[in-house]
TrEMBL record:
Listed GO biological process terms: isoprenoid biosynthetic process; quinone biosynthetic process
Molecular functions per Gene Ontology: metal ion binding; prenyltransferase activity
Obligatory cofactor(s): Mg(2+)
Organism: Tolypiocladia glomerulata
Pfam families: polyprenyl_synt
Protein name: Prenyl transferase
Presence of the UniProt keyword Cell membrane in the record: no
Length: 325
């Protein structure tokens, strides 16, 4: 994380430390292979951006400056759901590394990885049910449905040059933004004093999630594998049309031929990245991400300004937009 973002953790540092400790006990399993596969994911670390956002919102909106046990558990559940989705994503995308470490299916095999992902989803569902809040159960359960729908939308549109920017945003919502939007809403619903604000924070999470995905797709084109902790250019190789590529198609017609050939060789992917960088498509994608971040900022500044919490929520917005990995 960059230094500016670390400052925003001051209000919730103890909660983040406790979350990291709790995650290991929450994924415990009798089967040593299953536990080892799940543990591998958390050993790889991660930014914990989703629980950071949830805990920050809970802290800011609290009347007594305390985060409830249920909100802390929600942050943990959200991170487990996110991690479970990564296991399945890595199999689908044939990704051998994640956060600089070998992926579960690369260490074990696809079957074990699928089961490990299913196990994490099941664990998250069990802890979710134990929150004893039907509204929150319904909202968070919708995330897993959205994950599946997003993967199907992406899979059926692979190497499809007619994939529009509107379809890209819709797919990005299902695959990424839904988790943040629903989790932010659930965090507010768990506080009886501010339940009427849940839709505002749903939108806050939605726009942050969309911006996060757009920036992630930009990094796939502009950074090295070492910098992002996973193979660079993987979206291109898998036929996933991202914002930079969609914008570049209008300027570089040769990209159509490369996509039609499904990037058969590494040099095809490298050539596509070179063509994208020759246009203003990366900047246009950044502008799109900026629009969504500005919408998130607007919600905080206009509706939920507070001296102690406003800065931390705004810094999260700036981090999402300016992060490097």
């Amino acid at each position: 994380m960059n230094q500016k973002f670390k400052i925003s953790l001051n209000l919730i540092q103890s909660e983040i430390d406790q979350l990291n400790s709790n995650l290991y006990s929450m994924i415990s399993a009798d089967n040593p292979i299953l536990y080892s596969a799940a543990e591998q994911l958390f050993n790889a670390g991660g930014k914990r951006i989703r629980p950071i956002i949830i805990l920050s919102i809970a802290k800011v909106k609290s009347q007594n400056n305390n985060i409830s046990i249920e909100q802390k558990r929600l942050a943990e559940i959200t991170e487990i759901i996110h991690t479970a989705s990564l296991v399945h994503d890595d199999i689908i995308d044939n990704c051998d590394t994640r956060r600089g470490s070998n992926t579960v299916h690369n260490i074990f095999n696809n079957k074990i990885a699928v089961l490990a992902g299913d196990f994490l989803f099941a664990q998250s569902s069990w802890y979710l049910a134990n929150l004893n809040n039907l509204e929150v159960v319904k909202i968070i359960s919708k995330i897993i449905i959205d994950f599946a729908e997003g993967e199907i939308k992406q899979g059926t549109k692979s190497f499809n040059t007619y994939f529009s920017i509107e379809e890209y945003i819709e797919k990005s919502f299902y695959k990424t933004a839904s988790l943040l939007a629903c989790s932010c809403k659930a965090a507010i619903l768990l506080d009886q004093n501010v339940k009427d604000q849940c839709n505002d924070f749903y939108l806050y999470g939605k726009h942050l999630g969309l911006a996060f995905q757009i920036i992630d797709d930009i990094l796939d084109t502009t950074t090295t594998s070492e910098e992002i902790g996973k193979p660079a250019g993987l979206d291109l190789k898998n036929g996933n049309l991202t914002a930079p590529l969609i914008f570049a198609l209008k300027r570089k017609k040769k990209l159509y031929k490369l996509i039609e050939k499904e990037f058969q060789f590494n040099k095809n992917t490298e050539e596509a990245i070179h063509l994208i960088k020759q246009t203003n498509s990366i900047q246009k994608a950044k502008d799109l991400a900026t629009e969504h971040v500005q919408l998130a900022i607007h919600i905080i500044e206009k509706k939920h300004f507070s001296e102690n919490g406003n800065k931390s929520l705004l810094k999260i917005c700036y981090y999402v937009l300016h992060r490097f990995n």
